Amino acid sequence: MAIRVLLVDDQPLLRTGFRMILEAEQDIAVVGEAGDGLQALDQVRALQPDVVLMDIRMPRMDGVEATRQISGPGRDGPAKVLVLTTFDLDEYVVEALRAGASGFLLKDAPAHELVQAIRVVAAGEAMLAPSITRRLLDKYAGHLPSGEEPVPDTLNTLTDREVEVLKLVARGLSNAEIAADLFVSETTVKTHVGHVLTKLGLRDRVQAAVYAYESGLVRPGTQ
């Protein structure tokens, strides 16, 4: 089955370029386009895409609010949102991640990175460009709680090892890197990550990383 992609950007030329790149791949099908967030919501309901390639700055409804309505808390639809940004330190990217985006990509990324990003997000891996994601969270730490708030009760549902894994996920480590750090197998790490997501009611690794920052478990700038 081909990965069904919806393109959302207010610039028609960019949508055309993305479509040409993606339709050259046998395992990806562009099922629709939208020029703003409101159109995106209608298209998601009508077309049921697997991945929404979402611009942030658009008229009528921006990409952050559209992402929140597609992938935010309580949403259980199949669509995953991959956010597009012009700048690698766009302040809105943090808000998009908190709204439920599965990752982000620079608009000037090479074609092969766009294709790979679509595949990664569709597969549920979600933590795209983890080192950059962590840098964004560090950069915009002022948007996040100070860490002095009480620890959420949900964090107490995790075992000590699951807390360790969550911290490493928040630092941007891949499953292979976490396995090496903890001297366990990748399969064991995947199991722990799955337990963390289930217990905390999170959709993917990006949301887990944001949760770790917001709960104070990981402080911006720390290792």
Query: Which structural class do the helices and strands define?
Result: alpha/beta
Strand order of the largest sheet: 2-1-3-4-5
Number of strands: 5
Count the helices. How many? 10
Percent helix range: 40-55%
Mean pLDDT: 82
| Sheet with most strands | 5 strands, parallel
Question: What is the approximate shape?
Answer: globular
Unreliable stretches, pLDDT < 50, 5 or more residues? none
User: Span between N and C termini?
Assistant: 40 Å
Nearest-angstrom radius of gyration? 17 Å
Helices and strands, in N-to-C order?
EHEHEHEHEHHHHHH
Q: Please state roughly what percent of the residues sit in beta strands, choosing from under 5%, 5-15%, 15-25%, 25-35%, 35-45% or over 45%.
A: 5-15%
Structure, described:
This protein is of the alpha/beta class and 223 residues long. Helices cover 48% and strands 13% of the residues. It has helices at residues 12-23, 37-47, 63-71, 91-99, 111-122, 130-139, 160-170, 175-182, 186-200, 205-214; strands at 3-8, 28-34, 51-55, 80-85, 103-106. A 5-stranded parallel beta sheet has the order 2-1-3-4-5, with helices on both faces. Helix 1 (12-23) links the parallel strand 1 (3-8) and strand 2. Helix 3 (63-71) packs parallel to helix 4 and helix 7 crosses helix 9. The longest helix has 15 residues, at 186-200. The protein is globular. The model has no long low-confidence stretch (mean pLDDT 82). The modification 4-aspartylphosphate is found at residue 55. This is Response regulator. Pfam families: GerE (PF00196), Response_reg (PF00072). Residues 151-216 form the HTH luxR-type domain. InterPro entries: CheY-like_superfamily, NreC/VraR/RcsB-like_REC, Sig_transdc_resp-reg_C-effctor, Sig_transdc_resp-reg_receiver, Tscrpt_reg_LuxR_C, WalR-like.
